[in-house]
Amino acid sequence: MPNCLMARILKALYFPHDTFLEANIGHFGSSVWRSILWGREVLMKGSRWCVGDGSSIRINEDHWLPRGTPFSLRSKVSLPEGVTIDKLLTEDGTWKTAEVCSWFHVDDIPWVLGITPITSRSDWFTWSLTNHGQYTVASGYKLRFTHLDIVECSNKSTLKAWWKFVWGSKLTPKMKNFIWRVFNQWLPTKVELTKQVMQSRPEQDVRPKRSWQPPPPDHVLINIDASVVQDKPGCGLSAIIRDHNGQLIVAESLFIPGMLSIQLAEAYAIRMGLLLAQKWSLKKVHVSADCLGVVSALQASPTSLSDWGMIIQEILMLQKHFTFVQFSFVHRECYAVANALAIWNRKTQSCNLWTIDLPDCAATLLLVEKPLVAV
């Protein structure tokens, strides 16, 4: 806790005029303080900034690109030191595309354009290894022992002294050997066996054939999907709204040119579907998607610090415009029309709205699914 007595003492001793992230060991750093700073290195490896109004994130110096550690630019932009992201945003909070495309490295451009700034709030930190964006001991352990090359002890002399203490202690040779094997991941634990692919063969998964299921009478079903190709820019979003007879009410597609995580893309698609239903004055809606993490977050209504978690909060706020809203997880084969529209949109890179005459790839599937509806 930042306001507890211990935190205030450490701040007064080691970083009275800086933040914890900027603190140094100092000339007389205790072993406790050195250990805390080593833990901070692990924390920093898995953390990054999320873009709110952009006023706190320095373009060149900070880690803010959501493409994986170290979350920094491939090459620095030719801007003065300390320039913040808000200088790259227009008055309505969108990117100044011309500046981004001309100033940034070609590998960085799609990642930048894939970020949607949330200018209604300040920038914030997120922990990238959990869905809710908050640090957990388990996720920190995972980072430490799955990325040994990037998270090492920053003080080799401390590590050497520790091993000297272990070998010189009065522990039995068997216990010393056990400690050494644990430290070097030589024990046949489940984690290590998994790494060596020493798992039993999974049972054959026999699943019944799934199909589109209609909503109750007087309700509508919103099927959404997002088409993303790993490591390639461009994302296609789709939302299709049908009644209990399988009749098309309206469908929409949207193309986003940047790089997005699948969770963020699915959250955008759900928000688009609800906004479309609101525009059509529909009051009783069922929303289905195949991203279990996003659907679970919507059902649990948690507070999330992830970038897509902020979109979840926006979606939950949209519920006030409806008399009934239900979010559910379904497998992709249960909404082939939305999937086909998302793929078509990613390939054509267009934004469209339909009430009749869907593209051929989706229109055929719409006809195929309608006979399966029980009237």
TrEMBL record:
It holds the Pfam family zf-RVT. GO terms for molecular function: nucleic acid binding; RNA-DNA hybrid ribonuclease activity. InterPro entries: RNase_H-like, RNase_H-like_dom_plant, RNaseH-like_sf, RNaseH_domain, RNaseH_sf, RVT-Znf. SUPFAM superfamilies: Ribonuclease H-like (SSF53098). Residues 223-342 form the RNase H type-1 domain. Residues 155-201 form the Reverse transcriptase zinc-binding domain. This is RNase H type-1 domain-containing protein. It comes from Cannabis sativa (Hemp). The lineage of its organism: Eukaryota, Viridiplantae, Streptophyta, Embryophyta, Tracheophyta.
